[in-house]
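To whoever is on call:

I kicked off a structure prediction for a single chain this morning and the downstream step that reads the tokens threw a length-mismatch warning. I double-checked the sequence; it's 429 residues and nothing unusual in it as far as I can see. Pasting both halves so you can look.
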Amino acid sequence: MPATAVIGGQWGDEGKGKIVDFMAQNADIVVRYAGGGNAGHSVENENGKFALRTIPCGMVNSHSRMNIVGRGTVPELGIVVGELQALEEKGIDITRLRIDAAAHLVMPWHSAKDRLEEESKRKGNNSIGTTGNGIGPCYADKIDRVGFRAGDLLDINTFYENFRQRFKQRVAYLKRNYRSHFKRCSCCDLCRDIISGSVAVCQLHENIAYLKRKFESLDNLICDTRPILWEALDKGQNILLEGAQGFMLDIDHGTYPYVTSSCTGVASAAQGSGVPVNEIKERIGVFKSYTSRVGEGDMPTQMAGYPERKIREIAHEYGTVTGRPRRLGWFDTVFVKEVVRANGLTGVAITRLDILDDFPLIGVGIDNGTGGRRIDWIPGWGPKESVGPCRTWDSLPEAAKDYCNRIACGVPIKYISVGPGREETIVVS
């Protein structure tokens, strides 16, 4: 069977976790192929509620036999360990996880530099609005060819020797530029100087020890995952490629400079996983029924006043990782048409349709003829009708069908989410 890629079609927070969890019921392998702990994927199913940041959403059900953190990601071991511990507490078999040996690791100095840089930019009104998780600095080290990769942990003595040397260099650099943000730490000889707010270096030992203990050997966790994927394709097994953030945050295609530090589209699914491009036959874009954005940057259809406040409280529109209130807007068809064309989408998933139940009029952003937007108001289906109980396309109110067809921008609708639970999903044939 060919592979399927699932990407976010807006600025992230589209509900990819819910859609990936639903689709993972028919997947043998789920691969997270880009991004790091700055992405939050929320999942709710029969096993409970989960907020995953690095580990693929396929881990929270028993259908996928393996879950892979791909070589295009930048995992931070503390976040990975925290997620694994939370999964263990709910009876999930965590030994189904693999981390690609080529994935670059977020180090303590990455998160420190990220936060300190953002603070200095904020003082000069040049803030990007990052999560402060060290993603950008880690990718920068990757491009500069000085990063640490997961496979380096397999030769642990050499890793620690190189780590100590790099740590001293980076601490010296950060001290020169951000001296007032340091505090003393006496937990071990290695981390006498710890950058305020960063992950303590001594925790690195504990995290590695935990992974060794749970997987018996790091060789059972860290490997070149491409042969696993290629063999699965040869056997006709299903592979689901899980994206992070959204395409409008893509480093090349997004609203630069207010973007993430990775590529977030379908092309990155092949690059970040090792699945050949020609094997990705299905390309699903996930779109929230309205628009949301965390951080700075352009948002042409942003709401104001009552609609934004109402949706934020109904849908709890706060960042999964940061907790920051998201800016909200009406659906933007101009951007979405670009996303559809650039990624060659074969289908769309529309999420959070139920949130619009109480709106008698719903706005849709369209081209105003000069490159900007104007809001086209169309009839809603509420408050007399609700999409929440619907489980088929035919059972949806006619106005809801019209709205979904309008925002799908000519692409076949595959899934519609009308609630957080896995069962609250309409499969559109």
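Update from on-call: the warning came from a stale cache, not from the record. Cleared it. Sanity check on the structure: The CA atoms of residues 126 and 421 lie 39 Å apart.
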